Amino acid sequence: MRKEKDILGELLIPQNSYTGIHTERAKENFSVSGYKIHPEFIKAYGMVKLACATTISGLKKWDETKSNAIIDACSDLIEGKLNEYIVVDALQGGAGTSLNMNVNEVIANRALEYLGNEKGDYEVISPISDINMYQSTNDTFPTALKIACIKLLRQLETQVISLQEVLENKEKEFADIVKIARTQLTEAVLTTLGKEFSAYAEAISRDRWRIYKCEERLRVVNIGGTAIGTGLGAERKYIFQVIENLREISDIGLARAENMVENTQNTDVFSEVSGILKAHATNLIKISNDLRLMHSFKEITLPPVQAGSSIMPGKINPVILEMTSQIGLKVLGNDSIISHATALGQLELNQNFPLIAFSILESLELLINTNKILVEKCIKSIKANKIAISQNLNSSTTLLTALLPKIGYKKLSEISQNLENSHLSPKDYILQNKLLTEEEFEYLTCPDAILALGHKNF
Q1: Domain count of the chain?
Q2: Dihedral of alpha carbons 196, 198, 201, 205, sign
């Protein structure tokens, strides 16, 4: 065991532990959720620390051997080699200080290991004086979070593009399948199955554009601002250089905020991005529920992925769509959390940063995975049930609405009432009563006619 000391006293730490006294106290204080720090957040924090270390090294604050050891340790964090040692709970007090110190201690002890020194030999490399030099939790935490969000947004955009493309493919595949459209869950007029899928594709296209554009909101960071954005305690050359190094390391077009005090205290950009994720979630819920209904009407057939019941033999449930709806609801819930947490920030800092971070990263991860599963295990393999669609269509009075241009509303209302007491289909009734020729009927109920913007003059 080794003995470490902080302002509260001393604590015994296992000799070979990469963590130190600050991490151990945080583990004791915040053992509440068991939620882990997202790997992309750890990686992003490593990038921030590497940019800081590279800048400080360039300013000749350390000798070359020490600089190399610290830079190598930061690189290990970026590569995921030290993830198991980032052990603080994702939900913590202190606006993220515990995570920052966990990272500082792990990097310091890894660097000491590279130098051949004992872990905890902070006279040689200190988690605070060296690894946290010219920094604060208040500029490293939000900067790392923005990088992590951007990286995950790019992954989400890729999956949303895949969803859009598969919906567009279904639009083409189902383009000529005329079916009943429903408003208020009641049969209404005619449409095509392809046109319904085109609406889904268009909604997802908007999501794709929103996700692509919202990255801009996250590129403005406050690294170098230290505690409240004034740069207190940091060398001026460092403040101007660190953003350049971070831009290169992260491969993101980051920019230092013009008003770093504002950028430090306000978190509304995360609320804005979360709102875009919420919009995507609402579209996923809508589409999933529509497809479940069409499956229930037997208009489409969903791919079977698992048995649906432990008591009903042969039952197959639309589980992928059910999962998608639930994930959508979870993202809506996270958005509400982020909105409230953003609003309740106080003065120069938002103390709710850990909750904001966990919630937005969780929403991103859930949406990335859900879009991928939805495409691969559901949408791609949906089949049109043409027989059932045709049977529903031919027995429905919704066909009559398509005949309005030729027959008129009053006459069609009478026909609708007559059909209630008739065993004839709408088509047979129309043809037997010589209200239309078969050619006219087929034209008025064909995809081109029902989807045309207006009708030709009869």
Answers
A1: 3
A2: negative
CATH of the domain at 379: 1.20.200.10
294: which residues sit within 8 A by CB, 6+ positions away? Answer: 196, 300
Last residue of one domain, picked from the residues 358, 386, 414: 386
> Residues of the chain with pLDDT > 90: what percent?
83
Per residue in 358-408, pLDDT tens? Answer: 999 999 999 999 999 999 999 999 999 999 999 999 888 888 888 888 898
Among candidate residues 33, 129, 296, 309, the one labeled active-site is 309
The question of whether 136 is a catalytic residue gets the answer no
Query: What residues contact residue 394 under an 8 Å CB cut-off, 6+ apart?
Result: 425, 426, 427
Q: Within a domain: residue 253? A: no
Predicted TM-score (pTM) of the model is 0.94
Q: Which residues make Cβ contacts (< 8 Å) with residue 34, sequence separation at least 6? A: 89
Q: Which domain holds residue 23?
A: 2-133
- Residue 55: Cβ within 10 Å count: 26
pLDDT above 90: residue 296: yes
Q: How far apart are the first and last CA of the chain?
A: 94
CATH number for the domain including 78?
1.10.275.10
| CB of 118 closer than 8 Å to CB of 334 | no
